[in-house]
Design goal:
Elements lengths: L6 E7 L6 H9 L6 E7 L6 H9 L5 E5 L6 H11 L4 E4 L5 E2 L3 H11 L3 E11 L5 E4 L5 H8 L11 E3 H7 L10 H10 L3 E13 L1 E3 L1 H17 L1 H4 L9 H13 L6 E3 L4
Parallel strand pairs: 1-2, 1-4, 2-3, 6-9
Antiparallel strand pairs: 4-8, 5-9, 6-7, 6-8, 10-11
Helix pairs in contact: 8-10
């Protein structure tokens, strides 16, 4: 039996038949082998569930679950977390994928630095037209807390989190359909330190969000840091930077156009 700690990777998916295979294989083909992959199909109406099941039949490390109805990403990830038995937990969006050495790099970091409970990485974003964009993020705990005041300092699909920290602070708050990862990071950082490894170890598809979704995400990104001012401590001096978010929200509310807008969820 491997002496390396077990890593649980949670993939919540809804109608991702074009992407789910790539996501699963990027997880199970890691250089780090002591892992389990928990796929939660959120009542997909396409072939997402069937594809995931076929892959799972060839690898006993994969567990595939299916919601009886569409519950949303926060609910689905929480279901996966309740089944997770690893020391560390990774979250992977069904349309994103990992670099082959991602998990090994993060496990090595967390095994060496016990005061850290969450570690992310830089990422590369791919637009629908094939354009690549390198996303750099704050690296140190101090830089992350400063950035938390006005935007999310982690790429969701890049994070690896200690399971005992998640069990202590609770899982995703399902009241936040948007930005529930951002809210969770505040609770995690109230108990431990966080960092980003300055390597491009995660790949993301650029998301297309409609106007309603953009407004909801933007408003949550304003409300959440105001709620957790005690965690931010002296960094609340950067609150004026939230005005940029407020201006965006107001602009969306008054904009007459109904066309969907492209935004990077890591910003």
């Amino acid at each position: 039996m491997s002496e390396e700690p077990l890593v649980s990777i949670i993939i919540a998916a809804h109608n991702e038949e074009k992407n789910i295979k790539r996501a699963i294989y990027s997880a199970i083909n890691q250089t780090y082998k002591n892992l389990e992959v928990i796929v939660v199909d959120d009542a997909s109406t396409d072939n997402t569930f069937q594809i995931a099941r076929r892959i799972s039949e060839k690898d006993e490390r994969i567990l595939v679950l299916r919601n009886p109805r569409n519950l949303g990403p926060a609910y689905s990830r929480n279901i996966g977390l309740r089944y997770a038995s690893g020391k560390y937990v990774g979250i992977l969006d069904a349309d994103d994928w990992y670099h082959i050495r991602k998990i090994s790099s993060q496990v090595s970091f967390l095994e060496r630095k016990e005061r850290y409970g969450i570690v992310g990485t830089f990422c590369i974003t791919l637009s629908p037209d094939g354009h690549l964009m390198k996303i750099q993020l704050p690296v140190t705990h101090e830089e992350i807390l400063k950035t938390m005041v006005y935007r999310n300092p982690f790429v969701h699909s890049s994070v690896l989190i200690r399971k005992n920290i998640l069990d202590e602070v609770g899982y995703y708050d399902v009241r936040y359909r948007r930005a529930h990862d951002y809210e969770l990071y505040f609770r995690i950082l109230s108990k431990c330190k966080g960092a980003n490894i300055p390597k491009y170890l995660c790949y993301r598809m650029e998301k297309v969000k409609n106007k309603k979704t953009m407004i909801e995400s933007t408003l949550n990104s304003i409300i959440i840091p105001l709620r957790y001012y005690k965690i931010l401590k002296k960094n609340v001096i950067y609150y004026p930077l939230l005005l940029r978010r407020l201006i965006v929200a107001v602009g969306l509310l008054v904009r007459k156009s109904k066309e969907p807008e492209k935004v990077l969820l890591s910003t």
